Amino acid sequence: MPFWRRVRSGLSGGTLTALLGVAPFVAFAILFLILPTLGLVVQAFIGADGGFTLQNIVDLSQPQIVSSFSISLRISAASAAIGAVVGLIIALAIIRGKLPESIRSTVMTFSGVASNFAGIPLAFAFLSTLGRLGLVTVILKTVFGIDLYRSGFNLLSFWGLTITYLYFQIPLMVLIIAPAIDGLKKEWGEAAATLGATPYQFWRYIGLPVLWPNLLGTLSLLFANAFGAIATAYALTGSSLNIVPILLYAQIRGDVLQNPGLGAALALGMIVITALANVIYLVIRARAERWLK
Amino acid sequence: MTRGKPWAWVVFGLAALYFLLPLIATVDFSLRIRRGTYSLDAYLNVLADPRFQQTFSYSIFIGLTTILVGIFIVLPAAYYVRLRLPQLRPLVEFVTLLPLIIPAIILVFGYIRLYSSSSWLPLLGWQVGGQYIGGPILLTFAYVALGLPYMYRAIDTGLRTIDVQTLTEAATILGANQLTILAQVILPNIVVAVLSGAFLTLAIVIGEFTIASLLNQQVFGVYMQNVGANRAFEPAALAVISFVITWGAMGMIQLLARFAPKTARKE
After folding, report:
1. Is the ipTM of this complex over 0.90?
2. A154: distance to nearest CA of chain B, Å?
3. A36 contacts B15? CB cut-off 8 A
4. What is the pTM of this model?
5. A24-122+152-291 fold
6. Which of A2, A290, B37, B220 has the fewest Cβ atoms nearer than 10 Å?
7. Spatial contact of A219 and A77, defined as CB atoms under 8 Å apart
8. Do the chains contact at A94 and B98, CB–CB below 8 Å?
9. Residue B238 to residues A12, A124, A173: CA-CA distances in angstroms?
10. pLDDT tens digit string along A109-136?
């Protein structure tokens, strides 16, 4: 029957059509994701004379670059660690602390928005809050007599940037860890209690070990998230804080390192660090999901 | 009814303080442009600024173009991977995660290095006085890359909730060609999912700074940064406007989720 043959050929024979349908995606991925990144990786190993060299990688050891990596790593680590701990506590409070359902859904919706509220506006919000004329700074000074800036605090510093980054790090943690906490079955707690376990023992021997892979994985995701961020820091501090993305921004703008190959090596350093952190996240998440089915 | 444990309320209160204070402070600051009294002058200044109108409408335009191009690239790929090329799924999913792994500043650096030296791919940008200017087309593709993880997830989730196989068979029996099936059968069935991907893309793109700035494109994010460097109260007004937009886009997604079909086909 020709009619049925047409239906069947339309379903099984049209591999060519299918490949044509996937073609735009593949072309896009090659031209705008893979080639540009690979290009930078290759250029990191090409010297001024056009030949292969490791000199660019070696040159990463100059003081300005080393210090930028050090500051970036510390800010990313601090904001990831604090964000993960605080996010975990908030998620535990809304789920295990039995707060009303309306609060839980409000927190989750707000987390969805706040985790996307990065960039320039976030910097403005924190300038209005903890800047020299910010609301909290002024209230602390006039009402409580505490002068934040005289006691050494500065928004345009390591801790200032970390506090600002927490505004999107904590909600991201809440969003990712909440489903995992939901996966802790009620029966486990009841079984442990029946056997005489205290709440501390439950968390020490059951709760935390089950959540552990998820915690570690999310920690590396938060780390990568902070490490690649630039807009907030740039709007907040201009180029006064020497972190890797801001150094790279200046390099792209005006070749401040006076060596295009070194710029590519700097980019390679960033790619290696964020890729590593993300791979850790993906691998751990795949393992963690087995537990929480 | 659960009342909640006391420690949980304390945690919630402290968290609310940290997350609400900056919002309150920003609104407060944006209203203080006149000494001793609240006024909306900062907002009026911003809204009346022709540069605001230009950059904002340009960002909206780029955002909408990004969504259309994103759908054109993602929908056929997700559809055929689901229907005929399941062996490609791990690869496609990995590619859609790349924009989350590679920071935006690396992507744009790669574009500038790759497309400024030679004009082997036309229309993406041009040299002006020795400086590379990425055009709107390159900016759009860059934003498609930024939105790719979200657009793919949204569309793939949408496809999972409908019976792609049966719909395709039925449409083929009725004589529809592949293009008709995609545009008139599949797309209308997953329009809610596509829209939620679209709003998320818009929320990300509308205030983007890094890529646009390095491609020398005058978008809303770049305008915000300029205002931030030169004015005191207007940046707070811009932050409020931008938060309202993000909130609006995310609110639309929540709203759309209520209309999404709940019955998932078992696979």
Report:
1. no
2. 16
3. no
4. 0.86
5. MetI-like fold (1.10.3720)
6. A2
7. no
8. no
9. 54, 8, 27
10. 888 888 877 789 999 999 989 888 888 8
